[in-house]
User: Fold this.
Amino acid sequence: MWLYLVVLVVLYYLLRWYRERQVVSHLRDKFVFITGCDSGFGNQLARQLDLRGLKVLAGCLTEQGAEQLRNQTSDRLQTVILDVTKTESIAAATEWVKERVGDRGLWGLVNNAGIFHSHGYAEWVKIETYRDTLRVNLIGVIEVTLSMLPLVRRAQGRIVNVSSILGRIAFFGAVYCCSKYGVEAFSDILRRELQHFGVKVSMVEPGYFRTAMTDVQKSSEIMKQIWKETPAHIKETYGEKLFDAYHDIMKQGLLSCSTNLNLVTDCMEHALTSVHPRTRYSAGWDAQFFFVPLSYLPTSLADYILTRSWPKPAQAV
Assistant:
């Protein structure tokens, strides 16, 4: 009985390995548009795909970021300034892409742009931070996708949305988790609605990685500023002792982030270049061997594992 089960599992992974090794033809003729290419995953992916010979169209928030990327890549790569929170910027970028791809359409759209400013308990964070995060991480993804979807559909191409392991199991950074859960839901809907057009939709769910978004010093300053601006009655409820402990826990977590961004960008590249891309990619050892298994546990057990080391609030009952 167990032998048959093991054989079936081995055969399944061998078949998947064989299917996923099949590469899309004529990659050098295909255009890929990536958002958030100033730094981090987007910047790394743009350079990686450029080396592979694809025609990369990189959306950058700043001219400085765009110039630095152009200096590191071939003449094939082109950049455009894009703010995913502004409809007019998205519309202009879409027209810019349309002019370049022509009748071939857009083979790949990678929604990578994102922010993380919700360093603190849900009650500490201002509502403006909630709105700003959702505008970039969720509404921006939706608006860019809907704007460029006709171009992707024409090419029968790929949409790759960068979610997070926090889009699978939420335990800190409330609004960031909300935004990534939204990306997961939007991606699931798109995949089902677009299957008959030959468009494939994939999600990449990174664990903890060292990028500008997880910079230790910057994150520490944001946490302290958020706590400083928290109303006095809420501070009294939680207490300085809890904040200090929370700050140390978050700092240690950020220090342990992986610096190997290729673990994420290789997943993105596979989603764009494989004949049979996966629906979801869990990027990073922490994602694959801790957070994903944790997400399948009973909620009460997952809650205990995630919060057992958390400090207690000053006014805890």
User: Anything to note?
Assistant: The mean pLDDT is 93. The longest helix spans residues 127-155. Strands lie at 31-34, 55-60, 78-81, 108-111, 158-162, 200-206, 280-283. The chain is about 55% helix and 10% strand.
